[in-house]
């Protein structure tokens, strides 16, 4: 994990990115899961920087969709969707700081078939929705239940098996005074559905209020760019995070670092605004921390910047903009 | 006010649209103003349907911008902007009901020059913003303080005086579990900045949670379509509302009725989605309550529907879609 | 017509806005109608500034939809839609000049029922299209044939008659080197579907190439804001234009003037970009010709600018931004 | 090149994807380069399916920007930008057919420094443009001239060298009746600026009119996703294409195939519409040619579809949607 030693988390974290005390949040200790990102509830756990937290996450439907004959529109109870573990209070975290969260692992749990994806009315990238309202008749509802193992992946059908490439669909901190649906991605993180938020990566999250209030949930066993029909391969997991705190490193929106690249994450509509926001933040990062003039970073990213589409289905679309560490002169 | 006798409010309201007890919310009785729309705070007032409530509203800057030499970026403290009166608990209101709010009057108050408009960084329709991020340098900040009277209007300069055409910039109910910045417009109302929300009109608001939690604030002395630079002629007022309750009339997004038209209000990005949402809701209204087939309403609105742009500057854009009552066969 | 005497057309036109020689373009003299705006064809008529031209326009379907039992998808032959009269060569017109076109009249012609509107697949504001691609099944096709007279208007059904409020759906000049479908609106005019392009108004069009190549067609007997289902009340007409030339008045996009306001017209996607383009051009106009600083115009339009939505269905959406002449200090 | 033997080009092409006669288009034989995609000019070359054509392409500025002290806004003469080789008439091509173009090589030519990128006013993804109009002052103009070799890549500065990863920025066929600026990408191809259109790939282009009228130009030595500032590393090349014809394989928009994936290409605004168009076309392709039900393809792409952003700066944004051939059961 040599790259990690040189990561921003390892260099700037209060705990230097090193693992401290371990904690777990089980279904029982979590009790009631949460459906908004906010600071109006009591933390379920209090930790010091460096703590390692394992959380039993539910799938996005809280396990309510059990059979392929289920009708999502009858079972699901909006807005009580996308249940989140947490919030976790991080000692010492204050507005203007940054949480650094190293994703240690995402491990599937629960009885088979533990994976679920669905077509449901008014949700998805190629159907009319509450946001992109139209008059045509919705597609028929459909549920697909899937066997998932970390070793074999997801058995889609007789011919197709998708590798297990798990990541966290929803993670973030509390806004300062808002409490926003866990279906939404925004400046504090939330429902970004970005496959790079995966084991082995560090996600950096802005701290907007004392204690940070970290939430996590909604893990996916696999997902394509855009999460096209709106529902990835949802599954319950044990997700393990190492949480550090960077004092005084103020970021406006989530960032991510892994072995290969630095990434900024923008969530907005229309999609070009998500891309603009991500790229501008990357330019500002390169200007503040990597010795570039803004205009030089702008010209260079034109030639080598990379875009990853997270979701094109949530209330805001999410885009990651990144630059490879391998490009000479970029890394620290 | 004969049209009102035939309004939905008069016909369906628990109080039949008639004025009941009067209440007032002064600066003193309000105490702390609010910056989110949500149900996480105690109501400042409890009323029965029919109640008439006069509220002392602040301007969107809570009066903090006092002189043309002020620098908004130094004075304003995001997210503590757009202060709201309320919330008002409406007895009997339950999820699935509708609040009908007849706007009796908006009267300017406070010492002259009581009007304020500003150019500030990262805000406005023709400048880069946090949402539409760009690299160009912001426009210079500017403050304009304006004399306003109901009789004379707003004195813009020696040559131009704008008539006093006041309306409510921000009004709405609490979301069910969210608490959303009062800078945002959405399904529950909020910062719509739509000039039709004016004295003499009835706005219909969905009730998302018991008690409804009605908020109001942000009155404008005048505003063009789109609120182009992001800041209308902001001013403190006494705003008087008659609040009725329609049981079991479930609406998804705000609606409005006045002497001349029925309107639905959509807030979304991009702007075409706001227009789509407003028009679809109008079609569904015509189908449910006015005897049209959906497709007939769609074809008819193609020929006579009207669009009013509220804002093109807030986190969601707001559009009103309307149909004239005068078109034979539309009105009840 | 006193306002006209003070119009830009009357003040700046080569012919001072006065009517000169009269010409007509009949179906016979037109021969082949055109489906692109471009300079690759021979002009059908050559005129001097001041000329008055009456053109027999077809409806947008070239009269091919004759009965309510017709199926548009079987009859229409894309891209041979929206037939245009012209092009008209204007003597003296050069790149950088401006055509000023006073719309004298639009008169319905042809046998009854002469009006047509339709629902057709992949076209309209509330259905999936080639641009906003989705998977849901199209609405059923539908044709509505309508009786239209200038006196009575359009008989929609037993209960509803819409007043005759005709305007020109498509008008413009040739691009410099492009030839663009007459279904598209853009910087040269084209398929704007903006109801203000009506008798009594002057539309100003940029000249992009020698001779200007004026085209016109696609007149509507009525249309709501946005032309929601994509097809207004289409009808064949005799449309009479007075065409003048303004030398050296270079405009980037179409403008319009009538008794009440000055308007700029933007066509773009998403819709906010159409509004941005229109408003910026209005600001620049106010700065160049009306004695404003740009930033003052920006602040003033925030308080009194007006937006008219033309179409929300064509390949680009069209928005008009205007300012009332009545606001003291704006008019010349 | 075993994958090629199983490509659609090899299986369905008139020439079975095999190389036939060789041709070249030099600067001299090309003569006048073209700035629109259309069928209003004489072909510069006529070929049979299977022909191999080498073209001397200019850079997007036709070599006019020679020094870092040049000011693009003074040198460039809009709309005479992005010069194209061609058109090439393909014998036997008729509307409804498909051109299959295997990109054999892109080789840099011309004196050093042969690479050019610039910042120019009103163009780029993070600045106001004619489409996204704003009032802020443009960034300062800037020109960067770069040494490029195929072996070493592009020398960006002392610290950074970018690998030579050339591709074709602009390629396509003529629209049926339109002639559209070579700055625009659309259904016929054009200025897609998609890095996957690279040596070793096959691009499939719809034939809209007899002879197809193939154009090509605008090669880039490297480009990041989105072509952020609007100008990649532009350079003159010798580009070699093998052109085959697939009779009766009607496609609506460009497609691409290489060793690893099948891709569909959408160009639209806003960006989500480009993604929607690309994904819908991929679903339809999977349904027509790969044995999927549409809804199954929709659900599967949700889990494994991939998005590549071409440009976020041209008049339409371009997005490629793809599926890996390696996913069991997808490939033929």
From TrEMBL, chains A, B, C, D:
**InterPro entries the record matches:** FmdA_AmdA
- An example of a Pfam family matching this protein is FmdA_AmdA
PANTHER family reported for this sequence: FORMAMIDASE C869.04-RELATED (PTHR31891)
Name this protein carries in UniProt: Acetamidase/formamidase family protein
Report the source organism: Jiella sonneratiae
């Amino acid at each position: 994990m040599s790259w990690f030693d040189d990561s921003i988390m390892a260099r700037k974290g209060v705990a230097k990115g090193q693992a401290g005390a371990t904690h777990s949040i089980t279904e029982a200790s979590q009790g009631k899961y949460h459906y908004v990102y906010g600071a109006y509830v009591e933390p379920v756990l209090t930790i010091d920087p460096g703590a390692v937290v394992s959380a039993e996450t539910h799938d996005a439907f809280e396990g309510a969709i059990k059979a392929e004959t289920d009708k999502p529109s009858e079972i699901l109870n909006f807005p009580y969707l996308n249940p989140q573990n947490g919030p976790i209070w991080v000692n010492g975290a204050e507005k203007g700081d940054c949480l650094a969260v190293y994703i240690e692992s995402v491990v599937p749990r629960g009885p088979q078939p533990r994976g679920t994806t669905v077509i449901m009315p008014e949700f998805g990238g190629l159907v009319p929705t509450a946001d992109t309202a139209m008059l045509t008749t919705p597609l028929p509802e459909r549920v697909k239940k899937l066997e998932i193992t970390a070793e074999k992946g997801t058995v889609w059908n007789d011919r197709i098996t998708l590798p297990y490439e798990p990541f966290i669909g929803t993670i973030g901190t509390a806004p300062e005074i808002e409490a926003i649906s866990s279906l939404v991605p925004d400046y504090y993180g939330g429902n970004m559905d970005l496959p790079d938020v995966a084991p082995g990566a560090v996600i950096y999250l802005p701290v907007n209020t004392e204690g940070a209030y970290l939430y996590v949930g909604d893990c996916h066993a696999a997902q394509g760019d855009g999460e096209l029909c709106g529902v990835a391969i949802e599954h319950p997991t044990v997700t393990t995070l190492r949480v550090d705190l960077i004092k005084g490193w103020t970021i406006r929106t989530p960032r991510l670092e892994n072995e290969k690249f630095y990434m900024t994450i923008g969530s907005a509509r229309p999609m070009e605004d998500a891309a603009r926001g991500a790229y501008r933040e990357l330019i500002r990062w390169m200007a503040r921390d990597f010795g570039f003039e803004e205009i030089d970073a702008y010209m260079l990213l034109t030639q080598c910047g990379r875009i990853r589409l997270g979701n094109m289905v949530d209330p805001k679309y999410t885009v990651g903009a990144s630059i490879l560490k391998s490009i000479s002169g970029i890394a620290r």
